[in-house]
Amino acid sequence: MIDVYGLFWLDSTHLVLIAGSTGIVALYFLWRVFARLRLAWIVENTPTSLVRSAAQGQVELVGQAFPFEGRPLRAPLTGNPCLWYRYRIEKYQRRGKNSQWKEIEKGVSEQAFELRDATGSCLIDPRGADVHPRLRKRWEGNRRHPLSGDSPGLLSRLVFGERYRYTEELFVAEDICYALGWFETRGGGRHLPALEQMTADVVREWKADYPALLARFDSSGTGQLDESVWSRVREAAAEEAAQRRRVLAGEADQHWLQRPSRRGLPFLLSDHHEDDLSRQLRRQSGLATAGLLVCSLVSGGLWLALLNA
Taking every annotated instance into account, which residue ranges of this chain make up the domain E3 Ubiquitin ligase MUL1-like (predicted)? Predict the structure, then answer.
């Protein structure tokens, strides 16, 4: 057993495990210090674009948030209307003398919502975003899935025994929306495959229903399609592909903001003002710095105690 500065005794195996674990946590905090500072710098130094004139690629947009096609979501724990939600359910568990909150369920919405500024609108695909919501609620109850946001009283908790803790975060309609991500315009003939590719797709689609293909093109009734018939099939497929291409090319432009495909580029969503978001990121970096110092001191002290044993 090793005396750790007169505070407690540990065998060498447990001392190595604890020292190594706190060292790993210190490395995580070190990464988080610089990651949050980098995000704050990007938020502060990226110029805000307007939807109508935004370049394709990484951009920053600021506007108001609205439901996509006028269909808001319902928050799963409170039932409140929203545009985006994230929730967590924890259960209070007792094991002998120990008790703790254990996460038993969590979820996040993936439905797109709309950002509007003075020049136009852009759909936000929130999947994979680093989201910083302003609205956050935490409360307790005695049901796994609460029917409302009302917290039951102490008597109810004592009667039913089980305790649950709920956390719900929301974006709501008409709040400010800050978005930093990959901007892409779809429709208007963009990103259409070549006519030859669309023709081949039509032929494969028709061949999947071979009886219907025979009924349409086998005028001789032989039950087979020879080369001359296949020539007519390809001509008809080319006409169909050209018609589909004209329809797709006539669709209106639709702007999207989503997670960048390139690693290292941030995807941030927030209903804070830009300056508030930057301060929040810097506070998180400061907290990570404190965690780094504590874990480094603990890990270093434990390794030193092991070396001096």
Answer: 90-189
- What contacts 60, CB < 8 A, 6 or more positions away? 43, 46, 47, 48, 49, 178, 179, 180
Report the predicted TM-score, pTM, of the whole model to 2 decimal places.
0.68
Percent of the chain with pLDDT over 90: 50
CA nearest neighbour of 103 among 149, 25, 164: 164
Q: How sure is the predictor about 257, in pLDDT bands with cuts at 50, 70 and 90?
A: very high
Helices 227-249 and 195-207: crossing angle in degrees, nearest 10, is 120
Domain total in the chain:
2
Quick one: 28 and 142 in the same domain?
Answer: yes
Sign of the dihedral defined by the CA atoms of residues 261, 192, 124, 277, in that order? positive
**Residues 152, 278 share a domain:** yes
- 134's enclosing H/E stretch is none
Please say whether the beta carbons of 115 and 47 come within 8 A: no
Per-residue confidence at 195, pLDDT binned at 50, 70, 90?
confident
Burial string for 26-52 (b: 16+ CB within 10 Å, else e) reads beebbebbebbbebbebbeeeeebebe
Q: Are both 237 and 284 inside the same structural domain?
A: no
Is 176 a residue whose pLDDT tops 80? yes
4-15 confidence digits (pLDDT tens): 666 667 677 878
Q: Rounded to 5 degrees, what are φ and ψ at 196?
A: -60, -40
d(CA 36, CA 285): 5
Report how many helices (DSSP H) and strands (DSSP E) the chain contains, helices first.
Answer: 6, 16
In a domain, 302, yes or no: yes
The whole domain housing 207 covers 201-245
The pLDDT value given to residue 251: 64
Look at residues 289, 293, 258, 283 and name the one whose alpha carbon lies nearest to residue 40.
Answer: 283
Sign, Cα dihedral of 225, 227, 230, 236: negative
SS3 letters for 59-103?
EEEEEEEEEHHHCCEECCCCCCEECEEEEEEEEEEEECCEEEEEE
